[in-house]
Design brief:
The chain is α+β, with helices and mostly antiparallel strands. The chain is built from two helices and five strands. A hairpin with a 7-residue loop joins strand 2 and strand 3 (38-44). The chain is globular and about 35 Å long. The chain binds guanosine-5'-monophosphate and zinc ion. Zinc ion binds next to helix 1.
């Protein structure tokens, strides 16, 4: 567990969240400050600070994060027209919580390029 890591505390249920999906490796929960009608965060239960810090041994786990996003999106009728997955890596990309997470966003249109 990362020291004082908010997402580790969410993973162990020390901090409450609205859980969308859970298994032994990953947890998906609703973002506290949603940027879209659907905004879910998918995290590994293992503390990995950021994508940059993932090891080769994490390859399967990284795949599972994306696969979980796709499974959740597939269950949500409002995402039938599309959705976006985002990983902010480090400060310049806007990462605020340093426990790896995939944003699953949908239910509205998104522009490109992102801001
Ligand atoms: P980042 O900017 O690091 O990619 O995204 C962090 C996300 O975590 C933000 O969208 C923020 O709203 C969300 N967040 C931060 N703290 C909490 C929390 O305690 N609970 C939940 N559900 N989301 C959080
Ligand atoms: Zn953590």
């Amino acid at each position: 567990m990362g020291k004082n890591c908010v997402f580790c505390k969410i993973a162990t249920k020390e901090i409450k969240s609205s859980v969308v999906f859970e298994d032994d490796d990953v947890l998906a929960f609703k973002d506290l400050n949603p940027e879209a009608p659907v905004h879910v965060l998918i995290i590994p239960k293992k503390h990995i600070e950021t994508l940059d810090k993932a090891d080769r041994e994490d390859v399967q786990l990284l795949g599972k994060l994306l696969f979980t996003a796709k499974e959740i999106a597939g269950r949500s009728g409002s995402l039938a027209g599309g959705y976006r997955t985002v990983i902010n890596c480090n400060r310049d990309a806007g990462q605020e919580v340093f426990h790896l997470h995939v944003h699953l966003l949908g239910g509205r249109k998104f522009s490109w390029p992102p801001g």
